[in-house]
Each structure stands twice: as C-alpha cells, then as structure tokens.
Write a structure and sequence with these properties.
Distance between the termini: 29 Å
Number of strands: 0
Helix content: 55-70%
Number of domains: 1
Structural class: mainly alpha
Shape: globular
Order of helices and strands: HHHHHHHHHHHHHHH
Length: 320
C-alpha cells in the first residue's frame, strides 16, 4: 500500500495545548488517563526539550561511527555485535518487553520472565515499566493526537523525534503498568537500566583483553554500534510500518505489514497483523511471513517453559 502524505509536526507548544485541552474523543480520554490519581507520581510538564536524551543519542551515534574505524574491525567484534543484537533485540525487546510483558501473549516462569526483562533493559530503551507503559498507551491511542509517536506527524517524528520532547503519555505509565510495578526487580531495572551498560562494558573489555581480540573493539561493537542498530531497527516498527506496506486487516490506524522491517526485527514488521490481533503471540500469519520471535516462543512452548500462549481465533488465522 502506498504511503499517504504526512503533515509536518506541530510546534511543541501546540502539542502541549492540544494534549491539555483535548480536541477529540481520544484526547479527552487520554487527558483523563494522564491525570494522576492519589498516590501516583506527577509527570513532568508536557512541554520542553529532553536535552539529556538528545545528548545521549548524539554521543552514542558518534561512538558507533568510531567503532567502524578499521583498527576496531575483527571477527570477535562482529560476533559480539551479532550475539548481543539477538540477545537484546530479539530475546529482550520482541520476546520480553513486547509480546511477554506488554501484551501478556504467553506466560513463562518468573525467573525466565525476569531474564527476558533484563535482556530488554540491556537494549537501553528504558526499563520495563516505562517501555511497557508507553507501548500500552500507544495501542490505546494509535495514530491519534494522543499517541506519543503518532505517524500522522511524519516519519521523523514517529521514528525518533518524539523522544526528544516531554510527552504527556508518561503520566499514564503508572496506571498502565500496575502488574509490573508490584515486582521490586522490575522497579530496580526501571531505575538502573543504564548501569547495566557499564557492567556489560567491563565484561566485554575483559573478554577482549584476555582473548587478544581487543577490549575497546568489543566494547565499541558490543555497545554503541549494537545499540544504534537495535534502536533504529526497533524504531522502524513505529515509523516505516506505519508508512509503507500492506494492510489486510482493519486495525483502526496506519499499521501495515512490511516484510523488510520484519526481517530486521525478528517478525515485528508484520505490524498490521499485530495491531489487528494485539494479544497474539504470533505476528506472521500467511505464507512467507517469517516470524522468528514466534519460533522462539514455540520452542519455549515445546520445552514446557511457555504456557497460555494466545493466538487469534478469527477465520483463516492460525490457532496453533
């Protein structure tokens, strides 16, 4: 399906006023959801730049470019990137943060759920509570003015620019993540996810030093270069799959199936399928719709580690 024209992002003040006053039913519902109840933290004001996030992104992209210098190229460095890409993007973000924690598409033992959440935290896309809360908020208001990465505001906005400003959706996170906030480990991960990169960096430097592969080579390929790849591939699900692809199901938003995004994200690019059946553990339905995340879940099921696996029951959709 051809992409439809997208409007330019509104000015930050305009977005803040719209979020506060509400101009549609979605905005009115979102405004009520964003209003803290007694005992819930008050969110930051929905206006202004997030200079810390901007600075971090600039630094991590510059370090990723540094990693590409010939002096840091090696097969062990490439191996560290590929293994950690699978560990954080697949096991962490798609299996853990997304299908397990956000949608509860299946269940696993607590120790394994926490392992997947830890892998997700190593993706450095916030801790599990914030990630899950914002994702659940997105599904409630997908591609409306209340959606924090509304694709109608343009590719750049939905891809990453939304992260550079304070968003009203953060106020709704406590109300949308009560199941996770009860777990002290998830609260700890949510507060200290950045510190995991320091631990990982020390481990990679030690491995590179004792094996002769080069400590800094493994660090640069295993952290900044890997993070940039995981970031942009993950963000393509918010941007590219809401712009280009096919939409065989009525999902109520711009979500489309995009095969090249699915290839980069272990099956997350079958996004129209997902938005039509959000609680399904399987996203790739038809012939040729390879869903590597689903194969991981299916393996867990055969090993007796995954239970209550949820699948769509609509006509023509898989039920097993």
């Amino acid at each position: 399906m051809a992409a439809t024209p997208r409007s330019r992002p509104a000015a930050p003040h305009t977005r803040a006023v719209a979020a506060i006053t509400g101009g549609s039913s979605a905005l009115r519902r979102a405004t009520a959801l964003h209003r803290p109840r007694r005992g819930e933290p008050t969110a930051l004001a929905p206006a202004g730049r997030r200079w810390g996030t901007i600075g971090f992104m600039v630094a991590i992209h510059l370090l990723a470019l540094l990693a590409l210098l010939p002096r840091f190229w090696s097969l062990p460095a490439l191996a560290s990137l590929l293994v950690l890409y699978w560990l954080t993007a697949c096991l962490g973000v798609t299996v853990g943060y997304h299908r397990l924690l956000s949608h509860r598409a299946f269940r696993v033992p607590t120790w394994l759920e926490r392992f997947f959440a830890t892998c997700g935290a190593l993706s450095c896309q916030h801790g599990p509570i914030d990630w899950v809360g914002l994702h659940r908020h997105h599904h409630k208001f997908s591609d409306t003015e209340a959606d924090h990465h509304n694709s109608n505001k343009g590719f750049w906005w939905s891809h990453m620019a939304w992260m550079f400003e304070e968003i009203p959706a953060m106020a709704a996170v406590p109300r949308l993540t009560g199941d996770l906030a009860r777990d002290p480990y998830y609260r700890w991960l949510n507060n200290w996810f950045l510190s995991l990169q320091l631990v990982l960096g020390l481990l990679l430097f030690w491995i590179g030093s004792v094996t002769g592969a080069g400590g800094w080579a493994l660090v640069l390929w295993g952290i900044p270069l890997r993070l940039v790849l995981v970031y942009h591939c993950t963000w393509l699900v918010n941007s590219a799959t809401h712009c280009w692809g096919q939409a065989p199901h009525a999902s109520g938003d711009n979500a489309m199936n995009n095969p090249w995004v699915a290839a980069l994200t272990f099956g997350e690019g079958w996004h129209n399928n997902h938005h039509a059946f959000p609680h399904s553990a399987r996203h790739g339905f038809g012939p040729g719709q390879l869903d590597l995340t689903w194969l991981h879940i299916k393996l867990l099921q055969r090993l007796g580690l995954a239970r209550q696996v949820r699948l769509p029951r609509a006509a023509g959709r898989p039920t097993a």
